[in-house]
Amino acid sequence: MTKTALIFAGQGSQEPNMGRELAEKSTEIMNLWKEAEKISGIELRNIYWDANAEEQAKTQNLQPALTVVTLGLWLYGSSKLKPCCTAGHSLGEYSALVACGALNSQQVLQLVSLRGKLMTEADPSGKGAMAAIVKLPQAEVENLVEQAKTQSGKFIHIANYNTPMQYVVSGEKEAVEAIGELAKAAKGRSIPLAVSGAFHSPLMQEASNELNKAIDKLSFNNAKIPLWSNVLAQALTDHDQIKSALKMQMTGPVRWIDIIQNQWQSGVTQWLEFAPKAVLSKMTSQILDAKNLENTSYTSCSVGSSESLDAYLKTNQ
């Protein structure tokens, strides 16, 4: 029997009109949008369904909206899905918490609404920055991080281990600018990210402390299926361990390469991504293809609408 992992995308997978088709088809999912609007105090449907590009890009709007979209896709197919485990990339980990049964959708919408607000306000002076470093292997990126620290005298580290040739660095702006020049000289490429701070780094500690107060107030359940933690790249089912790992997420790295490789080693051969735009399914393929797997097949696909999810379910029953 095929072992399937459900994976939930984070920021970067959004699109205009995301989630609209599914919400207009399902009262349950439309109610999820309404609940998110009530909790966040933001008119999310007006922003994402009326093509307000400037508002759509704002972290405090995007985090609850994208969570509703990925949760809605999961809810639409959940009664027919038989996953062995789940994971989510950064923000996506919050949707995975619902899929594994550790939290309910209302609890998660409360957390992501607060998370988006805190991350937006965490760096009012604009001293933090992030950039994607591509076309260079991990060892070389790690070396460039150390060089950038030395050159700038500022903090920087790898925040996202996305694929064997794609990493995201996060830190103080001077160090991020320095690694951009170093990457170019090493025949790599640095792509600045449009974010409001140095996410997944110790520079988010104050925001993390505030979010963790809210996390501590919630009652977590043991997971019904293992949740692969962003920061640990380990499968967790114990409610205390899940809570502890989640509290490290805003200041710690996303170890996506290790998560996919470890899931593979545990027997997973199929990955199903919930996202408006395919991101993780492509990254998963790049991670597994880099291992030069022999005599073994895997599938990695993404669903972003009722039509694509229905097609998946039709061929995977």
UniProtKB/TrEMBL annotation:
The keyword Transferase applies. The keyword Chaperone does not apply. It catalyses: holo-[ACP] + malonyl-CoA = malonyl-[ACP] + CoA. One of its GO terms (molecular function) is [acyl-carrier-protein] S-malonyltransferase activity. The active site is at S90, H200. InterPro entries: Ac_transferase_dom_sf, Acyl_transferase_dom, Acyl_Trfase/lysoPLipase, Mal-CoA-ACP_Trans/PKS_FabD, Malonyl_CoA-ACP_transAc, Malonyl_CoA-ACP_transAc_FabD, Malonyl_transacylase_ACP-bd. Its EC number is 2.3.1.39. Keywords: Acyltransferase, Transferase. Coiled coil: none annotated. It is an enzyme of class 2 (transferase). Residues 7-306 form the Malonyl-CoA:ACP transacylase (MAT) domain. GO terms for cellular component: cytosol. One of its GO terms (biological process) is fatty acid biosynthetic process. It comes from the Bacteria. NCBIfam families: fabD. PANTHER family: MALONYL-COA-ACYL CARRIER PROTEIN TRANSACYLASE, MITOCHONDRIAL (PTHR42681:SF1). Belongs to the fabD family. This is Malonyl CoA-acyl carrier protein transacylase.
